[in-house]
TrEMBL record, chain A:
MF (Gene Ontology): phosphate transmembrane transporter activity
Gene: pstA
Lineage, uppermost ranks: Bacteria, Bacillati, Actinomycetota, Actinomycetes, Streptosporangiales
Species per Swiss-Prot/TrEMBL record: Nonomuraea terrae
UniProt record, GO biological process: phosphate ion transmembrane transport
A GO term from the CC aspect: plasma membrane
UniProt topology in membrane: Multi-pass membrane protein
ABC transmembrane type-1 domain location: 73-278
Subcellular location: Cell membrane
Pfam annotation, one family: BPD_transp_1
UniProt name for this protein: Phosphate transport system permease protein PstA
Automatic annotation (TrEMBL), chain B:
UniProt subcellular location: Cell membrane
Cross-referenced NCBIfam families: phosphate_pstC
Protein family membership: Belongs to the binding-protein-dependent transport system permease family. CysTW subfamily.
Residue intervals of the ABC transmembrane type-1 domain: 85-311
Function: Part of the binding-protein-dependent transport system for phosphate; probably responsible for the translocation of the substrate across the membrane.
Entry protein name: Phosphate transport system permease protein
GO cellular component: plasma membrane
Highest taxon listed in the record's lineage: Bacteria
Primary gene name: pstC
BP-aspect Gene Ontology terms: phosphate ion transport
TM annotation in the entry: 30-58, 78-110, 122-146, 177-196, 249-268, 288-311
CDD domains: TM_PBP2
Taxonomic source organism: Nonomuraea terrae
Length: 291, 326
């Protein structure tokens, strides 16, 4: 018994060292998170009140306290929702094409390659493109919709890649079992493959939303700055919460910087809430729970 | 691995389902294909419109766009990408070097080291890092990290100044390449960690248990059964991270001091990037200036394309290698 369990000292030391490094890596990742969250909460709570959540910046003087981010909050929610409505169907169906129908043909390889390229599209370039195409070339005005277009370009490859990865991890045995029962391919995809991969896909969409909800750069060139409430994403400038933070942070007075921190806190809370909802959906639909 | 299996066995399966009249098969296939084609069309449109909007400004440029370091398109029409492109590549590479080992460690911690009950909440904690918007990291970088790094920077410069990265005279610390790279590393870490974790968790349990049953320590089991399985996933994760680091705009726009020179000194305030320059310059740019910024965006686009292509080649080669070894 003891001879079987004996592990040489050098192997044991190596094992311990790696374990230490892994714990250290986790600690190194958590330290900045705690630091960022601590600063955002401690600085942001000062102005986190009902007025901030229900008022815009309309008519607020340069040095006034007061004012809020209502216009930016509804702007961000609208823009992210629109971006999701555009990008999730396109992304999911593209992933289905790549995994189930592409058969590694020429079109499939071309799409796969350009999804990779698209993954690397910097957010600021997406903004420049929508500015060049939608505003300069087609002559539309700055609007929340233009911002959503830019955000959807950033979301699409993330959705495709994560959905594709998850679809590929679905064991072929499941597909073959379904085919063997005489189920058509598209029904197999809808009833067997997608539910199996659902949790992973939701995680991927969640990361995509987390990525775009905080994007400032593409909004700079598409939604423009405004201090007033605009419920209509299809006409006129519409503020976004990240842009609000950027705008307020760049102002020299403390009242504006306070608003920037509170805006940052609100933005993080919104993104966290989206994450939490996604997690709950994933948990509710996970195959492990049904078993 | 899976593609081979599928093409071999996909043939007869497709044939069977085609012979059976199944309503919905054709529309479903058409919708899926159309979605892929829309994606290609968007990519083409991006290239076309970036090029067409950049050409007038490039024509008006009085310097060589690729070798000129200064950026003054609005008044003198002299601008070049050299310093900016260097800054983009250098800062992203630094960020990747810092982030990848930590991210792989984090992923292993959550998939194989953390107590099972704590693994999910701890994974969520790391995901939160991705949920923090870049503008917040920018604020944090300027308000907290830049002052924090001043003393260590000076120490490194005095004691290890012979090392090219830590060299430099005059002002040391402040808004440096190091501060930007650390912020970039923090921002790409959760992406690399999240994907690596998913892949590590998918590693075949049978292999892991077999390794442990043969008397392997935990590290040996990970080295033999988890890492080879997860390697392509980790590389593609790092690729996503690099893409994001290069395109990251607002955080570095706030931290980088917007200088236009090429230096490897990471402790002195000389740093800029293409994306940061676009964000800082777009507001006050005139027509030529906007065209010039679009041209620089095009260069950024091409650089990321090259990086992605290289990464793609690595992944494909690794896949073949893994298949040959299996």
């Amino acid at each position: 018994m003891t001879t079987i369990q004996h592990i040489s000292t050098s192997r044991r030391i190596k094992d311990r060292v790696v374990q230490g490094l892994v714990y250290l890596a986790f600690a190194a990742a958590v330290v900045p998170l705690v630091s960022v969250l601590w600063l955002v909460i401690s600085n942001g709570l000062a102005r986190f009140d009902l007025e901030f959540l229900t008022h815009s910046m309309n008519g607020i003087g340069a040095r006034d306290a007061h004012g809020g981010a209502y216009h930016a909050i509804i702007g961000t929610l609208t823009q992210v929702l629109l971006a999701g409505v555009i990008s999730v169907p396109i992304g999911l169906f593209t992933a289905i094409y790549l995994v189930e129908y592409g058969n590694n043909g020429r079109l499939s390889r071309a799409i796969s390659f350009f999804v990779d390229v698209m993954t690397g599209i910097p957010s600021v370039v997406a903004g420049l493109f929508v500015f060049a195409f939608w505003i300069l070339f087609l002559g539309f005005e700055y609007s929340g919709w233009a911002g959503a277009l830019a955000l959807s370009i950033l979301m699409m490859p993330t959705v495709v890649r994560s959905a594709e990865e998850m679809l590929r991890l679905v064991p072929n045995d499941l597909r073959e079992a379904s085919y063997a029962l005489g189920v058509a391919k598209w029904r197999t995809i809808v009833k067997v493959v997608l539910p199996t991969a659902f949790t992973g896909i939701v995680t991927g969409v969640m990361l995509a939303v987390a990525r775009v909800a905080g994007e400032t750069a593409p909004l700079l060139m598409t939604v423009f700055f405004t201090n007033s409430i605009n419920h209509d994403p299809f006409s006129g400038p519409q503020m976004g919460l990240p842009l609000f933070v950027f705008d307020q942070a760049a102002r020299p007075n403390d009242t504006a910087v306070d608003r920037a921190w509170t805006g940052a806190l609100t933005l993080i809370l919104i993104v966290m809430l989206l994450n939490l909802v996604a997690r709950l959906i994933a948990w509710w639909r996970s195959p492990a729970r049904a078993r | 691995m899976t593609t081979n299996v599928r093409t071999r066995e996909g043939g007869p399966v497709k044939h069977r389902s085609a012979s059976r009249r199944s309503h919905g098969e054709a529309p479903f296939r058409i919708v899926s294909t159309a979605a892929g084609i829309i994606l290609l069309a968007i990519m083409a449109a991006i290239a076309v419109f970036l090029i067409s909007e950049a050409i007038p400004a490039l024509r008006a440029n009085e310097a060589n766009f690729f070798t000129e370091r200064t950026w003054d398109p609005n008044s003198q029409q002299v601008f070049g990408i050299a310093a900016l492109a260097f800054g983009t590549v250098f800062s992203s590479a630094l960020a990747l070097v810092i982030a990848t080992p930590i991210a792989v460690g984090v992923a292993l911690f959550i998939s194989h080291y953390a107590p099972r009950r704590l693994a999910a909440p701890l994974g969520y904690l790391i995901d939160l890092l991705a949920a923090v918007p870049s503008v917040v990291y920018g604020l944090w970088g300027v308000a907290f990290l830049v002052p924090l790094l001043r003393t260590p920077s000076q120490w490194l410069n005095e004691n290890l100044g012979w090392f090219p990265l830590f060299a430099g005279e005059g002002i040391v610390g402040g808004k440096t390449m190091l501060a930007g790279a650390i912020v970039l590393a923090i921002m790409i870490l959760p992406i690399i960690a999240a994907i690596s974790r998913e892949v590590f968790l998918q590693a075949p349990k049978m292999n892991e248990e077999a390794a442990l049953a043969l008397g392997a320590t935990r590290w040996e089991m990970i080295k033999m059964a988890v890492l080879p399985f997860g390697r392509p996933g980790v590389i593609s994760a790092a690729m996503l991270g690099l893409g994001r680091a290069m395109g990251e705009t607002i955080a570095v726009a706030l931290i980088f001091p917007a200088t236009f020179d090429i230096t490897f000194e990471i402790l002195t305030p000389h740093a800029n990037s293409i994306a940061a320059n676009i964000a800082n310059g777009f507001g006050e740019a005139n027509n030529i200036g906007r065209g010039a910024l679009i041209a620089s965006g095009l260069v950024l686009f091409v650089i990321t394309l090259l990086v992605n292509m290289a990464a793609r080649m690595i992944i494909n080669r690794r896949k073949e290698y893994a298949r040959a070894g299996a």
